[in-house]
Specification:
The complex is a heterodimer of chains A (116) and B (113). Chain A is built from no helices and 11 strands. Chain A is globular and about 40 Å long. Chain B has no helices and 11 strands. The chains are: A mainly beta (116), B mainly beta (113).
Chain lengths: 116, 113
């Protein structure tokens, strides 16, 4: 499978614990995005990487959230001191650098986080 | 602020009929629009896109119409099939960004047999 993959698919954690999610984008894609999605809503932008550089981080994103893409390939999203309101589906997407006619992003299956 | 939204949260259509899903946007400076389909348990999948210098674009069984005068976008699905059942999202990209898509709430399309 050459699509975007995410690990784990599900994560249940207790409030206050730290969690880390991994995303492996499509190999030739140099752009990577993290989104949070709740039921019935469109994905909410969290952060964006171009190669290894984190170029944008949502103002809505708490300081408890951090993301890395150390070698410009896979990325990790860490949430520290989780809270119940962090419960959501966390989706990763990747794309080629703009220059062509499309800004299509390819989405992974997501990691569902439940904070108890 | 900028927003993209859908008029109807749920749309029920008879199998074989055409479906029309509507989307309103508020940022007149947006220069690119995209429709995604999200099936249950899966990530969003690209359907079709359109740039602001176009009014209409057709794909396989799908057509996107853009009316910049009233800031309205629609997705037309011809001869709706059971496999079209999903939540449909529209998203826009502002002219001042080269990557960020702003998404609206979805419309759930239900196909009646």
């Amino acid at each position: 499978d050459t699509g975007v993959s995410q690990d784990p698919r599900h994560k249940i954690t207790k409030r206050g614990q730290n969690v880390t999610f991994r995303c492996d984008p499509i190999s030739e894609h140099n752009r990577l995005y993290w989104y949070r999605q709740t039921l019935g809503q469109g994905p909410e932008f969290l952060t964006y990487f171009q190669n290894e550089a984190q170029l944008e981080k949502s103002r809505l994103l708490s300081d408890r959230f951090s993301a890395e893409r150390p070698k410009g390939s896979f990325s990790t999203l860490e949430i520290q001191r989780t809270e119940q309101r962090d419960s959501a589906m966390y989706r990763c997407a990747s794309s080629l650098m703009a220059g062509g006619p499309t800004y299509e992003q390819y989405f992974g299956p997501g990691t569902r986080l439940t904070v108890t | 602020g900028e927003s993209v939204g859908l008029h109807l949260p749920t749309l029920s259509v008879q199998e074989g009929d055409n479906s029309i899903i509507n989307c309103a946007y508020s940022n007149s400076a947006s220069d690119y629009f995209i429709w995604y389909k999200q099936e249950s348990g899966k990530g969003p999948q690209f359907i079709i896109d359109i740039r602001s210098n176009m009014d209409k674009r057709q794909g396989q069984r799908v057509t996107v119409l853009l009316n910049k005068t009233v800031k309205h976008l629609s997705l037309q699905i011809a001869a709706t099939q059971p496999g079209d059942s999903a939540v449909y999202f529209c998203a826009e990209k502002g002219a001042d960004s080269n990557y960020q898509l702003i998404w609206g709430a979805g419309t759930k399309l239900i196909i009646k047999p």
